[in-house]
């Protein structure tokens, strides 16, 4: 599937879509951030293509974080397991995502935030734990 043909990218972004080589992590983050910031509409097959092409599960935390932001922004419930895994494995980087989950106003996303937090709470650093508690349980 040719992603470039599916989505109109501005000329300055077309060099990122190469079918012949793997994306570098910084290219993946740049592409995902572009899709988030410009609120580019993506179909289910485009999301799957992105996840597979960027090898999200096999990359570093920055790429996974950007992928999770995209999933949350799109409220794409098919990839919630990716978000859950990220929050559990990258607790410090996940703090921002808890906020995104809560402001989504989506009950399933908010329930995921609370559920994961209750699981990882005992192992979180105090500063991170307090920041997330403030987001999840505002006073």
From TrEMBL:
- The domain of life for this entry's organism is Eukaryota
Q: Tell me, what is one Gene Ontology molecular-function annotation carried by this entry?
A: zinc ion binding
Name the cofactor(s) required for activity, per the record: Zn(2+)
Task: Name a single GO biological process.
Answer: proteolysis
Return the Gene3D superfamilies for the record: Peptidase M1, leukotriene A4 hydrolase/aminopeptidase C-terminal domain
Record has Ribosomal protein as a keyword: no
Q: What is this protein called?
A: Chromosome 9 open reading frame 3
Native source species: Plakobranchus ocellatus
């Amino acid at each position: 599937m040719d992603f470039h043909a599916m989505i109109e990218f501005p000329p300055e972004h077309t060099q990122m879509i190469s079918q012949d080589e793997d994306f570098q992590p910084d290219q993946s983050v740049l592409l995902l951030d572009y899709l988030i910031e410009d609120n580019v509409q993506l179909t289910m097959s485009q999301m799957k293509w992105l996840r597979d092409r960027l090898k999200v599960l096999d990359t570093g935390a920055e790429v996974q974080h950007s992928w999770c932001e995209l999933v949350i922004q799109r409220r794409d419930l098919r990839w919630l397991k990716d978000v859950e895994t990220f929050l559990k494995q990258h607790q410090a980087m996940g703090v921002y995502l808890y906020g995104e989950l809560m402001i989504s106003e989506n009950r399933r996303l908010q329930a995921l935030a609370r559920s994961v937090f209750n699981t990882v709470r005992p192992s979180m650093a105090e500063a991170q734990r307090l920041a997330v508690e403030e987001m999840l349980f505002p006073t």
